[in-house]
Amino acid sequence: MKKIAFLHPDMGIGGAERLVVDAALALKKSGNSITIFTSHHDRNHCFPETKEELKVIVAGDWIPRSLFGRCAAIFAYLRMIYLTIHFLYYYSNKYDLTICDIIPVSLPLLRWYGKKSIFYGHFPDQLLTKKETILKKLYRLPIDWLEGFTLSYADITLVNSCFTQQMFEKTFPSKNLATRVLYPTVNFASFDKKINGNLQLEKIGKVDTLFLSINRYERKKNLNLAIESLRELYNVNNCNDERSRSRVHLIMAGGYDPLNVENIEHYQELVELARDLGIENNVTFLKSPSDDEKQLLLHSCTAVIYTPENEHFGIVPLEAMYMNRPVIATNSGGPKETVIDGETGFLCQSNVVSFADAMNKFVKDKSLSREMGRVGHDRVVSKFNFKTFQAQLSEVIQLLFENK
């Protein structure tokens, strides 16, 4: 049995947090002792496993996330540095291995302290920010350098997809990173529970086709594409009156943190976009649905619309396919490795015409959702199951300790 610590910046309810939880559960079920160390853990805004099954220790939440909404990257690094120092000072002798993700600044500290470490890379951080001004470029210069410098201190670097692997190798060519792909898994148990009740939403009446978007309310997720594509779909089908439009509905279910300024702002931007397009009655917005609510949403929808471009991996398409629902996604990034175009959904260009065309296929052919959903379910069960994820992660750790 190994004693393993996870260092994660903020245990919210995003895809990165879901991966941490799944990895922690996988290693715990393999007989290891697991603790998650984080800078923030709101028990009212987290995955239930972090309250019921996993030990979580918080340190550094007193450090602000930003300075009046600015310099968020610097403060994220400061919070992670403090968390790492706290861990090393009080707990390091109790653990055999540390697994970090998102921010690699912990890695040199762990190495200098003689601790083995694994870094799980979701995507190069320096590619996630726009450097549109000289001031922003200067601001990011030391942060980007620090990311490249600290990455080389990991004993093993895991990545979530072949696409992410290529981006790490392209971004840090001089580091000779020995990356290994470990696909995330789907927590099947959370979707195998008995579904209780029916979808009861204020704006939804008798709907023939229900599209669902699940993603955090962040601008990089390109959520406006789903709303604009619905408007285009109405134009294609000459749905100019409310009665004909009401047959097709869109639900925007997004992760929403009331402490996150971007979540607050972008949610309002999307609400205003639907109103400006004249389809506010045809779009329902939900904030941070629970696991039970998400299960019901996936069960009730016709297809899932996944709009991020060059997404690192994307767990939502897997969850949708496991629930026998096809996925309409951009033909880039992780979805190219999970969604089979024309079989488990459609891979589209990142524009309203392409997405509306794919959506229209489900409007015209009511059997398409069922047929594609069945194929998608079989694909997820065979390739992205928990046991495979657990075995591959355990193998990586075993190799790490064998190569002392």
TrEMBL record:
It catalyses: a beta-D-Man-(1->4)-beta-D-GlcNAc-(1->4)-alpha-D-GlcNAc-diphospho-di-trans,poly-cis-dolichol + GDP-alpha-D-mannose = an alpha-D-Man-(1->3)-beta-D-Man-(1->4)-beta-D-GlcNAc-(1->4)-alpha-D-GlcNAc-diphospho-di-trans,poly-cis-dolichol + GDP + H(+); an alpha-D-Man-(1->3)-beta-D-Man-(1->4)-beta-D-GlcNAc-(1->4)-alpha-D-GlcNAc-diphospho-di-trans,poly-cis-dolichol + GDP-alpha-D-mannose = an alpha-D-Man-(1->3)-[alpha-D-Man-(1->6)]-beta-D-Man-(1->4)-beta-D-GlcNAc-(1->4)-alpha-D-GlcNAc-diphospho-di-trans,poly-cis-dolichol + GDP + H(+). Residues 13-187 form the Glycosyltransferase subfamily 4-like N-terminal domain. GO terms for molecular function: GDP-Man:Man(1)GlcNAc(2)-PP-Dol alpha-1,3-mannosyltransferase activity; GDP-Man:Man(2)GlcNAc(2)-PP-Dol alpha-1,6-mannosyltransferase activity. Pfam families: Glyco_transf_4, Glycos_transf_1. Pathway: Protein modification; protein glycosylation. GO terms for cellular component: endoplasmic reticulum membrane. Mannosylates Man(2)GlcNAc(2)-dolichol diphosphate and Man(1)GlcNAc(2)-dolichol diphosphate to form Man(3)GlcNAc(2)-dolichol diphosphate. This is Alpha-1,3/1,6-mannosyltransferase ALG2. The lineage of its organism: Eukaryota, Metazoa, Ecdysozoa, Arthropoda, Chelicerata.
